[in-house]
């Protein structure tokens, strides 16, 4: 057997793995019918942790305050900000009785740790149902609280939502950010639907205070600066207690990074948490990434060498077709259809970016949340 023969058979295996991911896992979102729940009007605490977010709070907090919902409070956590974040919070609090402020001072044991600040905010909240978002996020509709909390019931105590990024015209970085966000959402929604929830995003996430305290909060990974959302959900979520919300009124939208450097810094923090996931999740995510990488590498090598090129090209087109169908239907549900024609390029770019970030994280560990 020649080296090219080995590459060819490896390519077949890689395509099979990719097709299994798309047709068994990711189709769960692509062909899922959004399940509109009846409004429950349960009391809910909105938790927003802010560090140097004065301007964003001025811009986006009104969209939370104006939500069409009967009974909710907003817990604003000032995480040792150096700007006038606290002053902005106090101005809003003076005008709205349902706003509570938690002013967090750095202490040596938890210096710069968002999880410490969030814990104080959660303890200060008065309702059992908690809904999380960020200071630079806005709900896309005034029914956000209603849509997210409608999925709570006697069995479901965790609700995973979609946190989109706003669109910027003629920006390659913006397309890359949104594609990565879309593909990540397809993954964590799909894994949840097959009974293996592994993460959520703090831009749009809900769970009960009981879940938080039953797990002793973030104590199991308090030493990890990031992961207040994905690591915590990875710890407590299971097939019985977790559900998803993909109705468009339940989405939030955030301000995307404006430079590649700042996006890489953010992704370094996110990727560094993955090594703390449960073993089964790490295995599946590593298998997905490595099969993505090998698909493109082996495709290029085999097509350039013209080794069994007809079979290689056929498998290449088959896999791309499956991908376009699954991501196409999913992007329609998540309002990201303008990304479709860019999928091959964005996927290659993302694979290379993630590989670079992974290598950088091996060299130096990111120790920041903001």
From TrEMBL:
Which superkingdom, per the lineage?
Answer: Bacteria
Membrane-crossing ranges are 6-25, 283-303, 309-327, 339-363
Give the protein name, as stated in the record: Glycosyltransferase
Residue span of the signal peptide, if any? none
The keyword Transmembrane helix is assigned to this record: yes
Q: Name one Pfam family in it.
A: Glycos_transf_2
The record's similarity note reads: Belongs to the glycosyltransferase 2 family.
Quote the InterPro entries the UniProt record gives: Glyco_trans_2-like, Nucleotide-diphossugar_trans
> Which UniProt keywords are present, listed alphabetically?
Glycosyltransferase, Membrane, Transferase, Transmembrane, Transmembrane helix
For the keyword Transmembrane, the answer is: yes
Q: Which residues does the UniProt record annotate as the domain Glycosyltransferase 2-like?
A: 45-179
């Amino acid at each position: 057997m020649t080296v090219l023969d080995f590459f060819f058979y490896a390519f077949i295996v890689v395509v099979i793995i990719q097709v299994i991911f798309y047709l068994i896992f990711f189709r769960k979102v692509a062909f899922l019918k959004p399940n509109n729940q009846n409004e429950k009007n349960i009391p809910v605490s909105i938790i927003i942790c802010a560090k140097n977010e004065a301007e964003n709070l001025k811009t986006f907090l009104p969209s939370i305050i104006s939500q069409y919902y009967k009974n909710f409070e907003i817990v604003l956590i000032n995480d040792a900000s150096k700007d006038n974040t606290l002053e902005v919070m106090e101005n809003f609090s003076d005008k709205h009785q349902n706003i509570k402020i938690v002013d967090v001072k750095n202490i040596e044991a938890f210096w710069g740790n968002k999880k410490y600040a969030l814990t104080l905010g959660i303890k200060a909240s008065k309702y059992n149902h908690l809904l999380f978002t960020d200071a630079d996020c806005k709900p896309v509709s005034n029914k956000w609280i209603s849509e997210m909390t409608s999925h709570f019931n006697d069995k479901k105590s965790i609700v995973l939502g979609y946190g989109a990024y706003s669109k910027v015209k003629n920006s390659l970085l913006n397309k890359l950010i949104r594609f990565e966000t879309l593909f990540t959402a397809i993954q964590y929604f799909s894994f949840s639907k097959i009974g293996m929830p592994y993460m959520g995003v703090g831009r749009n996430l809900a769970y009960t205070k009981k879940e938080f305290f039953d797990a002793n909060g973030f104590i199991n990974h308090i030493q990890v600066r990031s992961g207040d959302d994905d690591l915590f959900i990875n710890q407590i979520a299971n097939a019985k207690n977790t559900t998803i919300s993909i109705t468009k009124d339940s989405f939030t939208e955030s301000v995307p990074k404006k430079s590649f450097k700042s996006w890489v810094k953010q992704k370094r923090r996110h990727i560094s948490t993955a090594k703390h996931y449960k073993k089964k999740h790490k295995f599946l995510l590593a298998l997905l990434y490595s099969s993505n990488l090998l698909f493109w590498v082996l495709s290029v090598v085999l097509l350039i060498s013209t080794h069994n090129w007809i079979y290689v090209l056929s498998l290449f087109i088959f896999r791309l077709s499956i991908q376009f169908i699954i991501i196409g239907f999913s992007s329609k549900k998540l309002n990201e259809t303008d990304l479709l024609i860019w999928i091959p390029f964005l996927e290659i770019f993302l694979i290379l970016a993630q590989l670079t970030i992974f290598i950088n994280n091996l060299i130096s560990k990111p120790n920041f949340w903001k």
